[in-house]
């Protein structure tokens, strides 16, 4: 059975590249998988810093679960609900679940906004939510503007099966990666000239990979922009409760209370994967101010409903105000502590990060370590970091950053000790760089650069879907 | 800056404004009547009895008993790391223990007549997602899948809505018990060709919804030969495979392939789910089992949009890897469904109503064509309206299943207690008695 014959038998969607896995960035993951760090068994291994997971607050959740056995349908206390939960496949979701999620979303915004449970639509994670929103708003061939650098999987989520294209709106360090009206207008105009139908703008706020929150003025100008052009605004607020310092998070929901806006254009994507550290539970939410999108999205949610078992557990957990208030507070505190520890450690060796107040990562500035301010140099440096420093970090180009030299480094998916080890390795590396001449630096590269797409076999898993093998987990088994 | 709110808001996508989601069909209209006036033995004994919902509620006690005696299902494994690992687990390969359990369960349902490799099991949030996902992979917008009628009404949405793929029916009728014939297959294919539509595959449901009958081995062989000749795919939705009343009567396409040493098997894909056999539609557990490596890889990637909650995978892994439990469950569930089926058939027969001879599923295919004023779709819908508003039973009219022959109705029997089923049968009995009486009066 020849591969080409197979490809003829499958659809265009099945055989194109928009799943995004044929990218050179998987080398980092491969290196980690082959040689994962473990404090005792493999202290020379690669430390995973490319995975934006929040592992800092599981103890809080576990404590709650132990104290609330009724919330599980498997315990003696909760099994009497088993049948009712097991047969519930209504795409509206449990009322209590929608209420609990709306409650949580409101609290994550300091109670400055309230969310209507009847606008809560479920989806298969934020992955499913972004796709669902695109299916509702755009036709194949239509485009959405997306400020870059951006989450790499936006292209797959927004465009793989929908046929929607993403047009980057480049941001750079000249103004701390702010999104400017000029940049938006330029991107919009170019699309018009190319006869591409722009249906909307999709933003991530707080930003991945920057870790910054959008300021009020920028948000207002974005809302003005989309109203003026009569296009949609999708705000992916998946890190809304992962904010640990100032400036604090302002949601688009707050902005539309303060200024005139056609609410039919405003849609929010949310999930519990980052703020609560529960990516396995697949809780994605579409929240739209547009009734038609809520109705349509709800019908589409049949393709990605949240397991009723999970709805039941979370309905109980997230309607416990005492738990939620404490969780949000603790989460911010622990993220702040971790962020501070990491950035201070980097500062000590002269590495700066973009000033940020949110997210599970920092946007690290390694421009001065580049031989040349080019993509190639960035990739070279990246391979050195993986193979010599043994840290899996994500190069800025994987986020479509137009300015070489930036790296996203995750800090919330490991324990303090591992952070120290990582910082030590960085310190050693930076000191070595200062000693070596540029020529020697070049000679140390022992891997050929390859930027051409390659097919990976099943042994390489998608970074987004990989089994998390946090050193913390391994340490305990 | 003033914004004129009065202006029409910017449009949504074509998919969003189309009606292909199918919710305006009578299949769903009956639900409204039920929702507004649901039967309850004590509080609303004259309400509408829901017989349009293919749910399996006859075997929950077995599941509950398992949970009560197996605490490992409720814990997350050893110590703190168990919960953390599970909560973080979003690998689209799915939990290995769960895939193994699913493969093993699928083998047991087929009485060991086919083997399933856990590496070919792709997980999705329900069969709804599985069928849509497969369609995205096997066909381009504008292409068609051939589907035998009558078929599950949800296919209109699952196969067509967001994919842009068409369904071309393979017509089946009562002249031969609604079996799929080679002539019907060819006719459907030619029909598509005549419309310049590219056929990418055949999608069968075996056991059939709404017929409640398994597909015979010889017919499966013919279908497989047909798709091989045309070089197209075969999707076999075997969601009711564990709901066959007698274990020997179900032949899976997997068996056919195994008997042929898997020659040409790369065009075959099986869809399964725990929604019907285990009665767990809320948990959203679907699978695609494909004999095609490309399809497995691509489906796995695509499952990112519709993964199964890791919490649910963990629970079911512990349940389904317990062979003692699953063997007993499969056997007991089968017996109870058979008993229910016999009860409804007898009850209908004594009311003068015949059904298609069935041997599987959670419903029977009831023949009310003798009652039609006119042998047309309108006649059928008029009768359906009477059943809904006078007899107060929500059953599914054949036209909602695209049956080309009017007068047939799908009637579910496993989503209620035996008492409720008795009440429903009594109502039907009275309805038929009154009709007979009215007819006799007219004659006089």
TrEMBL record, chain A:
InterPro entries: Aminotransferase_I/II_large (IPR004839), Ethylene_sulfur-biosynth (IPR050478), NHTrfase_class1_PyrdxlP-BS (IPR004838), PyrdxlP-dep_Trfase (IPR015424), PyrdxlP-dep_Trfase_major (IPR015421), PyrdxlP-dep_Trfase_small (IPR015422). Residues 47-426 form the Aminotransferase class I/classII large domain. It holds the Pfam family Aminotran_1_2. Keywords: Ethylene biosynthesis, Fruit ripening, Pyridoxal phosphate, S-adenosyl-L-methionine. The keyword Nucleotide-binding does not apply. Its EC number is 4.4.1.14. One of its GO terms (biological process) is ethylene biosynthetic process. One of its GO terms (molecular function) is pyridoxal phosphate binding. It is an enzyme of class 4 (lyase). The keyword Nucleotide-binding does not apply. Homodimer. Belongs to the class-I pyridoxal-phosphate-dependent aminotransferase family. This is 1-aminocyclopropane-1-carboxylate synthase. It comes from Castanea mollissima.
Automatic annotation (TrEMBL), chain B:
Its EC number is 4.4.1.14. Pfam families: Aminotran_1_2. Pathway: Alkene biosynthesis; ethylene biosynthesis via S-adenosyl-L-methionine; ethylene from S-adenosyl-L-methionine: step 1/2. GO terms for biological process: ethylene biosynthetic process; fruit ripening. Belongs to the class-I pyridoxal-phosphate-dependent aminotransferase family. Homodimer. This is 1-aminocyclopropane-1-carboxylate synthase. It comes from Castanea mollissima.
């Amino acid at each position: 059975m020849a591969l080409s014959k197979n490809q003829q038998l499958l659809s265009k969607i099945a055989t194109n590249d928009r799943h995004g896995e044929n990218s050179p960035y998987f080398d980092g993951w491969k290196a980690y998988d082959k040689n994962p760090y473990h404090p005792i068994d493999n202290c020379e291994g690669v430390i995973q810093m490319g995975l934006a997971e929040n592992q800092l607050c599981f103890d809080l959740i576990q404590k709650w679960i132990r104290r609330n056995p009724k919330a599980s349908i498997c315990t003696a206390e909760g099994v009497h609900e088993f049948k009712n939960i097991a047969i519930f496949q209504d795409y509206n979701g449990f009322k209590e679940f929608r209420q609990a999620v709306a409650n949580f979303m409101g609290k994550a915004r300091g109670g400055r906004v309230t969310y209507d449970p009847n606008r809560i639509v479920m989806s298969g994670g934020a992955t499913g939510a972004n796709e669902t929103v695109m299916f509702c708003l755009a036709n194949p061939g239509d485009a959405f503007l997306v400020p870059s650098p951006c989450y790499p999987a936006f292209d797959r989520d927004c465009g793989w099966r929908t046929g929607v294209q993403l047009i980057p709106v480049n941001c750079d360090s000249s103004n701390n990666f702010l999104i400017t009206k000029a940049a938006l207008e330029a991107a919009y105009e170019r699309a018009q000239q190319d006869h591409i139908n722009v249906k909307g703008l999709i933003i991530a706020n707080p930003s991945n990979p920057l870790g910054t929150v959008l300021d009020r003025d920028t948000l207002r100008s974005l809302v003005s922009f989309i109203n003026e052009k009569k296009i949609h605004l999708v705000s992916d607020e998946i890190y809304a409760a992962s904010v640990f310092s100032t400036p604090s998070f302002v949601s688009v929901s707050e902005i539309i209370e303060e200024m005139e806006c056609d609410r039919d254009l405003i849609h929010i994507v949310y999930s519990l994967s980052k703020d609560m550290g529960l990516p396995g539970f697949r809780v994605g939410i579409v929240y739209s101010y547009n009734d038609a999108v809520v109705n349509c999205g709800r019908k589409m949610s049949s393709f990605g409903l949240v397991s009723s078992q999970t709805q039941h557990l979370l309905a109980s957990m997230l309607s416990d105000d005492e738990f939620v208030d404490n969780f949000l507070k603790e989460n911010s505190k622990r993220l702040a502590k971790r962020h501070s520890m990491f950035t201070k450690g980097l500062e000590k060796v002269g590495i700066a990060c973009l000033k940020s107040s949110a997210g599970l990562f920092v946007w690290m500035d390694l421009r001065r370590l580049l031989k040349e301010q080019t993509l190639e140099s960035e990739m070279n440096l990246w391979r050195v970091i993986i193979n010599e420093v043994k840290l899996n970090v994500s190069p800025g180009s994987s986020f479509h950053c137009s300015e070489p030299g930036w790296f996203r480094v995750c800090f919330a998916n490991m324990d303090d000790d591992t952070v120290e080890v990582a910082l030590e390795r960085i310190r050693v590396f930076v000191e070595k760089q200062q000693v070596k001449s540029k020529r020697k630096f070049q000679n140390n590269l022992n891997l050929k650069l390859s930027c051409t797409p390659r097919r990976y076999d099943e042994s390489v898993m998608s970074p987004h879907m990989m089994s998390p093998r946090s050193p913390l987990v391994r340490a305990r088994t | 800056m003033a914004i004129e709110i009065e202006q029409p808001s910017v449009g949504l996508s074509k998919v969003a404004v189309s009606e292909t989601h199918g919710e305006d069909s009578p299949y769903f209209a009956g639900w409204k009547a039920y929702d507004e006036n649901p039967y309850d033995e004590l509080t609303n004994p004259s309400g509408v009895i829901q017989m349009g919902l293919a749910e399996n509620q006859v075997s929950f006690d077995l599941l509950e008993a398992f949970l009560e005696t197996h605490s490992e299902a409720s814990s997350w494994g050893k110590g703190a790391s168990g919960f953390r690992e599970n909560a973080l687990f979003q690998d689209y390969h799915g939990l290995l223990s769960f895939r193994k359990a699913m493969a093993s369960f699928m083998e047991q349902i087929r009485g060991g007549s086919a083997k399933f490799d856990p590496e070919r099991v792709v997980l999705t949030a329900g069969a709804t997602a599985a069928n849509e996902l497969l369609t995205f992979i096997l066909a381009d917008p504008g292409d068609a899948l051939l589907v035998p009628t009558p078929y599950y009404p949800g296919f209109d949405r699952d196969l067509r809505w967001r994919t842009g793929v068409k369904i071309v029916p393979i017509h089946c009728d009562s002249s031969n018990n609604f079996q799929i014939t080679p002539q019907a297959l060819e006719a459907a294919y030619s029909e598509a060709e005549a419309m310049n539509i590219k056929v990418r595959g055949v999608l069968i449901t075996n056991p059939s919804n709404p017929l409640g009958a398994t597909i015979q081995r010889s017919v499966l062989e013919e279908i497989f030969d047909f798709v091989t000749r045309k070089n197209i795919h075969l999707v076999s939705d075997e969601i009711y495979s564990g709901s066959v009343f007698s274990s020997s009567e179900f032949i899976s396409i997997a068996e056919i392939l195994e008997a042929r040493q898997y020659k040409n098997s790369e065009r075959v894909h099986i869809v399964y789910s725990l929604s019907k056999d285990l009665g767990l539609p809320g948990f959203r557990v679907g699978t695609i089992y494909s004999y095609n490596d490309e399809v497995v890889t691509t489906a796995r990637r695509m499952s990112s949009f519709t993964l199964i909650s890791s919490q649910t995978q963990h629970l079911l892994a512990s349940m389904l890897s317990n062979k003692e439990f699953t063997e007993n469950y499969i056997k007991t569930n089968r017996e109870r469904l058979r008993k229910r089926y016999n009860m409804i058939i007898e009850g209908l027969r004594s009311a003068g109503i015949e059904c298609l001879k069935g041997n599987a599923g959670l419903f029977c295919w009831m023949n009310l064509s003798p009652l039609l004023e006119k042998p047309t779709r309108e006649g059928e819908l008029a009768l359906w309206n009477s059943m809904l508003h006078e007899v107060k039973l929500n059953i599914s009219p054949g036209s909602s299943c695209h049956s080309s022959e009017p007068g047939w109705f799908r009637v579910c029997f496993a989503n209620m207690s035996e008492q409720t089923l008795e009440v429903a049968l009594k109502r039907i009995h009275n309805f038929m008695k009154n009709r007979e009486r009215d007819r006799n009066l007219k004659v006089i």
